[in-house]
Write a structure and sequence with these properties.
The protein has 2 domains: about 5-120, Rossmann fold, CATH 3.40.50.2300; about 125-220, Winged helix-like DNA-binding domain superfamily/Winged helix DNA-binding domain (Arc Repressor Mutant, subunit A, Orthogonal Bundle), CATH 1.10.10.10. Helix content is about 45%, strand content about 25%. By secondary structure, it is α/β, with parallel strands linked by helices. The strands form 3 sheets. Strands 2-1-3-4-5 form a 5-stranded parallel β-sheet, with helices on both faces. It has a 4-stranded antiparallel β-sheet with strand order 6-7-8-9, with helices on one face. Strands 10-12-11 form a 3-stranded antiparallel β-sheet. Helix 2 (about 35-40) packs parallel to helix 3 and helix 6 (about 150-165) packs across helix 8 (about 190-200). It has 9 helices and 12 strands.
Length: about 220
Amino acid sequence: MNTIMIVDDDAHIRELVRYFLGRTGFEVIEAADGRDALARLESQKVDCAIIDIMMPRMDGWELCREMKARYDFPVLMLTARGETAQKVKGLNLGSDDYLVKPFETEELLARVRALLRRYKMEKSQQVRIGNCVMDRAAREVVLNGERLTLPLKEFDLLFKLAGRPGATFTRDAIISDVWGMDFDGTERTVDVHVNRLRDRFPDNRAGFRIAAVRGLGYRLEIVT
């Protein structure tokens, strides 16, 4: 059974999430703010956290940063409607997904399940996406039975996107993970590498596409 932590100073929201996720097979633990959440994590293992942004004592931004520095589980942030800046900031801090308040419980459940699947896939050394199989240990890509050799950064970028299909990554997050914090180039570098990957893996052959998310970054989508 997966354990989900809900961190929100609104007791009604916590109760709603606990009831809905609990009846679908999840164990749910609650925290009223960031400090409370970190204290509970010292003795409680969780598989995913859902955290609000505006909370007393420690807000969601700082909590997300602390969680990502100390633990290894996905984080879903609850953001205000239409606040693109909040989404970008959360993704840059390491948030794995976001959901706009007010939200439908069915969508919350779907996003939590998708996050857990993505995280499991991301930790694997081998990823199968569409008609492509990627082996991180061997740095090998097989597309429709044909072995391809990719430049190192293109491989790392594609593996990052393929490890969590449907997840949105900002350009800053991609640069940090693929090129490193000391990279002195521009965001245009990401766009260039994405275009190269699109040329190498056309949608109809690869079974996936790399989609631009306006104002945020990129995500990999399965083509059906």
